[in-house]
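Encode chain A's predicted structure.
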Amino acid sequence: MKITDIKNTAWRDALQPASFRGALFHVETGSRENGRRIVLHEFPKKDTPYPEDMGRRAKTFSVRAYCIAYPFDTGAPLYSRDYTKARDLLLAALEAEGPGVLQLPTIAPVTVVCPQYRWTEEQRLGGFCTFDLSFIEYGVTTVSQPSTTANLQAQADATIQQAINAMNNATETLRVDALRAGP
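Encoded structure for chain A:
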């Protein structure tokens, strides 16, 4: 019996080809890591710490990928007798600047950046290369809000300027009235 003989395996039917920025590769292992950003506050003379939840940590993905020579050419770089075609496409995708879409076999596509990777070829394993890939979730850039201190200072400056303008206007009105009244 072969694994492909087992029926009613919804997970197998849902498998997707692995790719990054459209460059296909095979996956040996894949893992995802994340959790919560917890800041631990420990105070002098207190026995109980205070853990503060600062939100969700960024998702990170570690992937052991490979490209291998296929027994015959199919027209697709990943399924070619020359594995270097798929290797070079993946290298170009990993070297490109900015975020890209990562598709792993068992998860929905996710936008990520690749901060580092390791590419390995061994003489004893001709026609085969591996990649150890690291990806970080690419989130939405938030617009930074000015600090409360900066807002308060700007409002104070505007109020002072309004007061100076009002005093100048009042002084000018008094001067004009004095000139009209004469000596």
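The longest strand covers residues 110-121.
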